[in-house]
Amino acid sequence: MSQALTITDLHVATSEGKEILRGVDLEIKRGEVHALMGPNGSGKSTLGYAIMGHPGYTVTRGNITLDGKDVLAMDPTERARAGIFLAFQRPMAIPGVKMADFLRHAATNVRRPDRKEGEDLIPMREFRKELNEKMSQLRMDKEFARRYVNEGFSGGEMKRAEILQLAMLRPQFAVLDETDSGLDVDAVRLASQSIADIGGQDMGILIITHHEHLLEHNRPDFTHVMLGGRIVETGGPELAVELHKKGYDRIRAAYPAAAAAEDAMREQDAEASSAIGSTN
Amino acid sequence: MATDAVTKPQIGDINKYDFRTESNYVFKARKGLDAEIVNQISEIKGEPDWMRDFRLRSLEIFNSKPMPAWGGDISLNFQDIYYYLKPADHQGKTWEDVPEEIKKTFDRLGIPEAEKKFLAGVKAQFESEVVYGSLQEELGKQGVIFTDTDTAVREHPDLVREYISTIIPSTDNKFAALNSAVWSGGSFIYVPKGVKISFPLQAYFRINAENMGQFERTLIIVDEGAEVHYVEGCTAPMYSTESLHSAVVEIVVKKHARCRYTTIQNWANNIYNLVTKRAVAYEGALMEWIDGNLGSRLTMKYPAVYMMEPGARGEILSIAFSSAGQHQDAGAKVVHCAPDTSSRIISKSISKNGGRSSYRGLVKVESGAQRSKSSVVCDALILDPQSRSDTYPYIEVDEQDVSIGHEASVSRIGEEQLFYLTSRGLSEPEANTMIVNGFIEPLIKELPMEYAVEMNRLIELQMEGSVG
Q1: pLDDT (tens digit, 9 = 90+) per residue, A94-152?
Q2: How many Å apart are CA A27 and CA A43, to the nearest integer?
Q3: Chain B residues with CB inside 8 Å of A169's CB?
Q4: Which residue of B414, B419, B441 is in closest CB contact with A96?
């Protein structure tokens, strides 16, 4: 059995019925690094949400499988326990919940997928040791573990917290949604190195990014370009470099239908927001 | 989701604490309330005449007062309640002296953990009498008195007589009058000038007889410059018929003294918990109430701080958790009677499975209390559409030069928060519990360690089956 996350003809709409993904095909094998690029609003984050099972997005057609298992039949909890991870572009604050407590629950559940509520967690001492190691590798202050999840975090702290979660949960497949945004150059380099260290040969990674820095230590085996809710072009690492340097003009010109769909989506958004504006 | 939640057995929430051990009562008064019963209680306790008279006067006041016309619905038959039970002849002096039955009950409650740690400071009340209590020798040497209030009436009558019912007179409200008539047990603490007690003094209360009211009376006097932290925790077994808990807690915090009073109560779903708690704080003194209310059919409780002299401070942190068939009408009262006094109220409530939580609070600033400051924050978390939360803030200000702030919020658990936590492998109930525990974290972190653990466990039990 191939160890892969396989996405076939995936169509996804928002709960308001707006279609965002219009037939995405993608296969990520364990150990592979894929970069996903594309203009804002092309559907990259939606793909991440759909893979993780966000309740605000509905799959209207197509499949996602993990080593042949039907991912769409699983709720987010089951997907996480099956080894899927999403590093959020904008992680949620959970007031009053300490990072350490949250991570201990998360790590226990992911490592013991059959665990029921109330059953034992990873022993505290063992967990602390591991968490401290991981935090020191990410050059995070120990104090971080006692802070409330994402509450009052700077943009950079949020992203490092997501990488810490990646390190603790060690998923089989990870989608990193702009994990480089909000980080300065040094921090991106550290993040890039950390992701490479965590990933290794065991993890399949989909990196959503506008930049090439995160790819420095994570040389993509494949680079995909998304436009208008579809992957329109796939290439090697050189494609990421080109897009970073030259932007998406060539892509738009080469795929007019997708570009038109993209523009239509954007107009819809503009109309929706002006309608909201006028009623207010 | 909601229908599934409703089909879960609600009493399962506290099944863990739903047990009863056999008790050999040495004396059990007949049901009902009249002068004969009150005389009998006083007789058995061998009380002095002034206390007997106080009880009888209070009974008259109780009879003359109407039931409160606000708050929650109370349907109680006062003649169908036992007002006094005496479980054993003598108080145990050491743990070994404590009867096996009672130890078993404590074991089930997990009390020995606290026992080990605070052996000397622990007092536990079983039924209406304190059966176990061993004072740390050190406390005695410092002149601290920590005993049950019955003993205090015998051994320190002058102190008790000087203060009892001066903070909460029997005429204050119907249930204060009832308590004054039939009170039994409770803690009496006197901390002499300048003595700072470094560990929390603790007591455990427990109701364990059907239809039995528990009417403990607590009186705490913290003399000038002294400090004390008193902790009471309650878990009660589940019974099908009505049960009444009506305590009175009076506290005097003298010049530059500090007192913190922490309560975690988890009453069975059939209990009326109608408690009057009030403190007076003098010059530069600090009074803090930390009040956690879980369970009960109806709780009406509004810990109060009267700031009598300049620089006095009052802080009240209140948490209420209400589930099916439960109404928590809880809050706080602060009264600024002098200049430069300050108060802070933080109230957090959680309602689920059709439970109802109300915040009822009073901020009062008397004329002449210049530069008084008060801030009130109440946050409500509602877990499902069947549940309810109300806020009744009363603000009465008779002074111009004051600063008063009031913030209130009502929230529900957000879909995005749930998605974030479940995407990390937490189950939905686990994620909900975590969000709720985070919501009340401001109170939890003020609790002594073992109470914090207990509180989190209680929340987990309360949350079980809350999400279908």
Answers
A1: 999 999 999 999 999 999 999 887 788 999 999 999 999 999 988 899 999 999 999 99
A2: 17
A3: 424-425
A4: B441
Separation CA A182–CA A206 (nearest Å): 19
pLDDT per residue over B282-325, tens digit each?
999 999 999 988 888 999 999 999 999 999 999 999 999 999 99
The reply to whether A106 touches chain B by the CB within 8 Å rule is: yes
- Tens of pLDDT, residue by residue over B9-26, are 333 333 344 444 445 555
Q: Which residue has the tokens 């505290």?
A: A124
Q: What pTM value is reported for the model?
A: 0.77
Q: Going by DSSP bridges, is the β-strand pair B243-245/B217-222 parallel, antiparallel, or unpaired?
A: unpaired
Cα(B129)–Cα(B216) distance, rounded to whole angstroms?
9
Nearest CA in chain B to A54: B419
Strand partners, B230: B201, B261
Contact check, Cβ <8 Å, B426/A52: no
- pLDDT for B207 equals 42
What does the pLDDT look like over A39-57, one tens digit per residue?
988 999 999 999 999 999 9
**Mutant choice from A49, A97, A112, A147 vs B, greatest count of B C-beta within 10 A:** A97
Hey, of A77, A109, A150, which one would you mutate to test binding to chain B, going by the most B CBs within 10 A of its CB?
A77
Q: In angstroms, rounded to a whole number, what is the distance separating the alpha carbons of residues B110 and B282?
A: 38
CA of B413: which chain A residue's CA is closest? Answer: A94
Q: Which residue of B has its CA nearest to A113?
A: B425
Residue-level pLDDT at B27? 64
- Residue count of chain B: 468
Nearest CA in chain B to A117: B430
Residue of A103, A105, A146 to mutate for B, most B C-beta atoms under 10 A: A105
**Residue B424: which of A96, A106, A117 has the nearest Cβ?**
A106
Backbone torsion region of residue A145, taken as left when φ is above 0, otherwise alpha when ψ lies between -120 and 50, otherwise beta: alpha
Q: Decide if B414 and A92 are in contact by the 8 Å CB cutoff.
A: yes
B203 falls in which pLDDT band (50, 70, 90)? Answer: low
> Are the beta carbons of A76 and B422 separated by less than 8 Å?
yes
Q: B interface toward A at CB cutoff 8 Å?
A: 414-417, 419-430, 433-435, 437-442, 460, 464
Q: Which residues contact B210 (CB under 8 A, 6 or more apart)?
A: B239, B241, B243
Note whether B232 and B262 are within 8 A (CB): yes
